[in-house]
Design a protein that fits this description.
This protein has 114 residues and is an all-alpha fold. It has one domain (26-112): Alpha Horseshoe (Serine Threonine Protein Phosphatase 5, Tetratricopeptide repeat), CATH 1.25.40. 44% of the residues lie in helices and 0% in strands. The protein is built from 6 helices and no strands. It has helices spanning 26-34, 38-47, 62-69, 72-80, 95-103, 108-112. Helix 1 (26-34) packs parallel to helix 3 (62-69), helix 3 (62-69) packs antiparallel against helix 4 and helix 3 (62-69) packs parallel to helix 5.
């Protein structure tokens, strides 16, 4: 049996930590972006579009998480919802910087985030 990754609150990915369509906190939007859960992300943003730009204690937003994955569909979804690709992490990195660091400057995500 394969163990699912543990999420910050101690639950396992795939558990009902995230109630379908009902985000409980801004970190739920970040979680959906970080794990590539586009349908969940869209549902969350329908309920709480203002959480598209929420940043955690390190300054990471859902856009940073999507940029790290190089997930074009998530990035586009966040941009359409008003996501701000220029937000900076606590160490001064915007989403394009993150995509470039993790994936290289030639990756489509880095180019989309210009």
């Amino acid at each position: 049996m394969t163990r699912q990754p543990v999420i910050a609150d101690g639950t396992r990915e795939g558990s009902d930590h995230h109630t379908e369509g009902q985000p409980r906190s801004p970190s739920d939007v970040q979680w959906a972006a970080g794990f590539g859960e586009i349908d969940v992300l869209k549902a969350y943003l329908d309920v709480k579009p203002e959480w598209a730009n929420w940043q955690d204690e390190n300054g990471w937003s859902a856009m940073h998480m999507a940029a790290r994955r190089g997930d074009i569909n998530i990035i586009e979804t966040l941009l359409l919802a008003g996501g701000d690709a220029s937000l900076k992490t606590s160490d001064g990195k915007n989403a394009k910087d993150v995509a470039t660091i993790f994936l290289g400057e030639a990756h489509r995500a880095a180019m989309l985030l210009e």
